[in-house]
Amino acid sequence: MPLILASSSPFRKAVLERLDIDFSTVSPDIDESRHADETPRDLVYRLSAEKAREVAKTHSGLIIASDQVATLASGNGPDDKILTKPHTRENAVKQLQLSAGNTVTFLTSLALLNTKTGALQNHVEIFKVVFRSLTDSEINNYLDKEDTLKCAGSFKSEGLGVALFERMEGDDPNSLVGLPTIQLINMLAKENISIL
């Protein structure tokens, strides 16, 4: 069956390419607005499924979809503030100032939809990043060196972003990039697809 990544993210595409499997990419066009009283966890769980189903309207195969949010809380409360993609330098500075000395929880959902059987696997991976205390000078120096305006939380863990951290807590560091590959491999195995 064709494998389709329902994403326009170059970061997710790069992670999937490392698994050395053939796939194509299709960008899903859905409304990603958060519903009233929706927790960050519920939000990403819903959005990954919606992305997969949207792509299934025009493509068949195994569709991989993912969504990610970062929050300064557990991700289980409807009032938890989500750290979005900053889009501007000013927003990136503010986000990193908020994160400094705190723990940021990343919630990354992964959905795998088999369009032939209708079977949908869905999972939310939790990964926590404990930030060092950071000076404004360190934050600005980091942003001078790395373009993070399209990255949730305003950093790239696969790049210089690790210099911002005290420690990381989680099972799959690829979930920080937006595609939990350990879970994906397990999901593909349930569809009788082996990576090795």
Question: Can you characterise this structure?
Answer:
The chain is α/β, with parallel strands linked by helices and 196 residues long. It has one domain (3-190): Maf protein (Alpha-Beta Complex), CATH 3.90.950. The protein is 31% helix and 24% strand. It contains six helices and seven strands, in the order βαβαββαββαβαα. α3 crosses α4.
Layout of helices and strands:
Blueprint: E1 3-5, H1 10-17, E2 24-25, H2 40-56, E3 62-71, E4 82-83, H3 89-99, E5 103-114, E6 120-131, H4 136-145, E7 165-170, H5 174-177, H6 181-190
Parallel strand pairs: 1-2, 1-3
Antiparallel strand pairs: 3-4, 3-5, 5-6, 6-7
Helix pairs in contact: 3-4
User: How large is the radius of gyration?
Assistant: 17 Å
> How many DSSP helices?
6
Helix fraction, binned, reads 25-40%
Average per-residue pLDDT, rounded, comes to: 92
Beta-strand residue fraction? 15-25%
- Any idea how many domains? 1
Helix-strand pattern, N to C? EHEHEEHEEHEHH
Characterize the main sheet.
Answer: 7 strands, mixed
CATH hierarchy, class? Alpha Beta
Number of strands: 7
Please state the overall shape, judged from the principal axes of the Cα atoms.
globular
CATH architectural label = Alpha-Beta Complex
Query: How far is it from the N-terminal to the C-terminal residue, by CA?
Result: 17 Å
Low-confidence stretches: none
- Give me the secondary-structure category: alpha/beta
CATH topological fold name: Maf protein
